[in-house]
Amino acid sequence: MPEFSPQALDSLRAPLETGEVMVARANHHVRYPAQVQLVAAQNPCRCGIGGAGRGHCGKAPRCQMAYQSRVSGPLIDRIDLCVDVPPVTAADLALPCPAEGTAEVAMRVARAREVQAARAAEPGGPAAFLNARAEGTWLEKIAALDAPAQALLSRAAEAGRLSARGWTRTLRLARTIADLEGQPQVRRLHVAEALIYRRTAPAVGGWSEPVAASLGG
Ligand SMILES: [Zn+2]
Predict the structure, then answer these.
(1) Along the 217 residues of the chain, how does pLDDT read in single tens digits?
(2) What is the Å distance from ligand 1's center to 69 Cα?
(3) What sections of the chain are H helices per DSSP?
(4) Is residue 112 a contact partner of residue 180, using CB atoms and an 8 Å limit?
(5) Ligand 1 midpoint to CA 91 (Å)
(6) Residue 151 CA, ligand 1 centroid: distance in Å
(7) Backbone dihedral region of 3: left (phi > 0), alpha (psi from -120 to 50 degrees) or beta?
(8) How far apart are the CA of 13 and the centre of ligand 1, in A?
(9) Contacts of 19 (CB under 8 A, 6+ apart)
(10) Where along the chain do its domains lie?
(11) pTM of the full predicted structure?
């Protein structure tokens, strides 16, 4: 991601928020639909090796700071899932394949989307059924938190870890995590997992090879 210019990266902010691209010229402006699922990756620094572990970057931490700061905080705030991907070790290669394969995960995702579609078909439901597009009173209704979950989210906000946008996006993500588990109620555990995926600002040394995705529901 940091190989693109900061201006090009920041032009993604509006479409990621609104699902539309607006092209403005002297006398006209045109809106185009642009609901995307953004999947992006970046190295820890320009050298690609970062500041942690064996053979670390000789220019750390400056190399990482300069590289990671090309992706702005407001853009990161619009990315729902940030996942560190540590280097693969020899021990990792010797591990057996994961018990749950891609086909099984795909079925779980399809079931979660069916749950979202059925919920949105209820009276008062929105036209766009995915949690990723839920907002306002509809989001409050479908992602109503129990008391421990509410307390955890409030603590994260008070600690400055969440913007107003981050709060909404964490609710959507917690709802989706609960849907993937087949749970009707969003609980503390779901909010805690959603918060793990949020990144508030580029953290030097914290990202090895992050894969980030704007959640498509
Ligand atoms: Zn470096």
Answers:
(1) 999 999 999 999 999 988 999 998 888 999 999 999 999 999 988 888 776 666 678 888 888 889 989 999 999 999 999 998 887 888 888 888 888 899 999 999 999 999 999 999 988 888 888 999 899 999 999 999 999 999 999 999 998 888 899 999 999 999 999 999 999 999 999 999 999 999 864 443 333 333 333 333 3
(2) 13
(3) 6-10, 13-18, 62-68, 73-76, 90-93, 102-120, 136-142, 147-158, 164-180, 188-196
(4) yes
(5) 25
(6) 40
(7) alpha
(8) 27
(9) 33, 34, 35, 133
(10) 6-79+200-213, 102-196
(11) 0.82
- CA of 51 relative to ligand 1 center, distance in Å: 7
Question: Per the structure block, which two tokens stand in for 101?
Answer: 């394969």
Distance 45 CA to ligand 1 centre (A): 5
Cα-to-centroid distance, 121 and ligand 1 (Å) = 51
Comparing C-alpha atoms, which of 133, 10, 19, 15 is closest to residue 73?
A: 10
Q: How far is CA 167 from CA 20, 143, 180, in A?
A: 22, 12, 20
**Distance in Å, CA 203 to ligand 1 centroid:** 14
Exposed/middle/buried for 86, CB within 10 Å: 0-12, 13-18, 19+? exposed
Q: Which of the 8 DSSP states describes residue 146?
A: P
